[in-house]
Amino acid sequence: MHRALSFAHAVRALQQARCLSPEVCYRILHWRSLRCSGAASTHVPRAAGGFQSAVEDARGLGTPAQAAATAQPQLPLCERQAQHAVPLIDLLAWHETALLQVKDVGDSWAQQDDGPSAEDLRTELGWLLDDSLAAWSHNGGDWRGVSWQQLERDLRQQTFKDSAGQYRVQLREPLESLAAIWEQRLRHRHPLQYLTSTAFWRDIVLSVGPGVLIPRPETELMIDLVQEAVAASPLLAAGTWADLGTGSGALAVGVARALPQAPKVYAVDLSPVPLAYAAFNAQRLGVADRVTPVQGSWLEPLEAAGVRQLAGLVSNPPYIPSTEMPGLQAEVGRHEPHLALHGGEGLGIDCLLPICTGAARRLQPGGFLALETAGGEQARYIAELLSHMRCSALNGAAAGLAGVGVCTGSSGSWPGGGAGPSPGEQLAFEDVRVRKDLRGVDRFVTASRAAVPVDPDSDS
């Protein structure tokens, strides 16, 4: 009897605080009790579309490498078929419970490692609900499309204060699965993108999962740089391009969509897991006939396959210096693949260097190079390196196969101090520029392959 009275008092207190109906408040307290007993996070039904890989395996994830070994591409949550109908009041009750979980976390992650704040987590919760919610129905009527933003707006206006029990909503995954996702997000700081197989990037949605670098908003500007280069030199649009270190295939797919005339875009990665995602995303987004995943290190597999020249080369390679790896946010350092993050000792340019020299060998005269870097000193170093890289002058037919060297200066520590090209050599790149990202950071380095003059003594 005492327990029943306490529960009734709790319902009334919650009703007064949140302006919700008693039925909604009852379900909120029900979700709280499940959370305390662990029931809400231990029962995860297998959902349609292979969803269990993202949720059930999350509880057993070990190292990022172990996770990557079993990862399989899944359809993004927002694209799955909506076939799970639940009362709206159940969804609202779970939403309130999830907000209480966020309150428990607060801003502790931001204080620990500059991770998400409480406000960031509330935003993520909105994303999860928006990707999950498809439609609603009133009193058994027809299903009509609805967004979580619309529901939130109506909630703020107390539209459902007395009639929430008359609505049902269609979800793309069972409500229990959404609760399990959120538990994993907060308990282990798994990236939400992995748990939902969803990364919004430019105007597309990419499938991502453990073992695949999550594409960042900054990288979206790389496609703008490609379009700018093609506008200045239209012939580049009809050539072959390559994306080195493709990950999810974001840049390869982005280039293929931006340049419909390009016959082929090679998506190169050392690991088979990202290549599976790149192929899956290319197929989903309608460019599989022109995006070719290739396994190997940077340009090596293309050279082995006899690819002689490229019109353009883009890359977002690993560039984080060793000294900065321990300080990464938990979402990144614990869960994203270190192979796609770690750039090596010093400036962290172990991967950038072979890409630069490979670009000098394989880009056609006038070919475009775009690199993402850590910014700052690293970006300036790469720009200086490209500005002083030199190659042998060959006849036009052999351009792009020239021997490549770098002016390193007397100390060997900075590329800008060496002498100019010696007889028979010329600078490999021109129009080398450092470009800013959306936050004003010197993030990108772009360049054009210099035209190799025809050797006057050549018979060709």
UniProtKB/TrEMBL annotation:
The alphabetized list of GO BP terms reads: methylation
At the top level, the lineage of the source is Eukaryota
The answer, when asked if Nucleus is one of the entry's keywords, is no
Which SUPFAM superfamilies does this entry report, sorted A to Z? Answer: S-adenosyl-L-methionine-dependent methyltransferases (SSF53335)
> Gene3D superfamilies from the entry?
Vaccinia Virus protein VP39
What's an example of a GO molecular-function annotation for this chain?
protein methyltransferase activity
Q: Does the keyword Cytoplasm apply?
A: no
Which Pfam families does the annotation name? MTS
All copies of the Methyltransferase small domain together span: 237-319
From which residue to which does any coiled coil extend? none
**Per UniProt, which keywords does this protein have?**
Methyltransferase, S-adenosyl-L-methionine, Transferase
Q: Please identify the protein, giving its name as recorded.
A: Methyltransferase small domain-containing protein
